[in-house]
Specification:
Multidrug-efflux Transporter Regulator, Chain: A, Domain 2, Globin-like, 3 domains, 13 helices, 73% helix
């Protein structure tokens, strides 16, 4: 069966403008252009659009999707199985949040008791899942599954008091780092205070601390543009400054 832009857009629940944009950026070309100048899509294009929308639902950027699905090694069946696993993870997360809301309603109505830990389980699970989606592969490749799994378990067992403490610590780190950056000296007192605050912050998430791992993470902040963008969003160059301060703090340069 073949589809025009209008018909395929209606079938997929997206706009015709989206389909035309996908054509422009070479992520989804029509099978052919008919004699009237209309884009015509066939089964292969329908299947590719389904893959694109699956990846979009999982938060993958169009640039990354294009790189994935145009790679010679791309396996559509394997991709569908991966999509299924990711969607099941998302389903599990939503079910946990729904259960958390149900418990809170029951608590407010006086039908059950609910610990502070239970109140925040869903949100902590979401934070873990979000981090896995954004940085999971790189972090697991660098530190190993056991280390990452232990860190995730530590987060899930974090008390509300500990959560409040690490949140306040993160804000203190952000402010101190911003002030230290203005000095331009990664070896200075403020910069080294920021490096120590960063160590304290990490210890809420890491099973154990090592100077080597700390220095390696600081280098990743510069090597991985996603981390760099996070630290540089207000003051460009902050990621490199923090990296240098941590390398001085740990005495290790990677």
């Amino acid at each position: 069966m073949e589809y025009t832009v209008q018909k395929l857009a209606h079938l997929a629940g997206i706009s015709t403008r989206t389909l035309r944009y996908y054509d422009e950026i070479d992520i989804l070309k029509p099978a052919r252009i008919n004699s009237s100048g209309y884009r015509i899509y066939g089964l292969a294009e329908v299947d590719r659009l389904q893959q694109i929308l699956f990846y979009r639902e999982l938060g993958v950027s169009l640039d990354s999707i294009k790189e994935i699905i145009t790679a010679p090694s791309f396996d559509g069946d394997a991709a569908l199985r991966e999509h299924r696993e990711k969607l099941l993870e998302k389903k599990s997360q939503l079910e946990l949040l729904i259960a958390n809301v149900d418990k809170t309603i029951a608590l407010n109505e006086g039908r059950i008791n609910m610990s502070n830990k239970e109140k925040f389980e869903g949100f902590k699970k979401k934070m873990i899942d979000d981090n896995e989606k954004k940085y999971g592969k790189e972090i697991r490749d660098k530190y190993g599954d056991d280390t990452v799994d232990a860190s995730n378990a530590k987060v899930m067992n974090m008390s509300q008091e500990q959560h409040d403490e690490v949140t306040a610590l993160a804000e203190q780190l952000k402010q101190t780092l911003a002030e230290a950056f203005k000095t331009g000296d990664p070896a200075g007192k403020l910069a080294q205070e920021a490096a120590d605050l960063h160590r304290q912050w990490l210890c809420y998430y890491w099973k154990e601390y090592s100077k080597e791992a700390h220095a390696g993470l600081a280098q990743m902040y510069v090597d991985d543009e996603r981390f760099t963008l996070y630290y540089d969003q207000e003051q460009p160059g902050t990621a490199e400054f923090l990296r240098d301060a941590i390398h001085i703090y740990t005495g290790i340069k990677q």
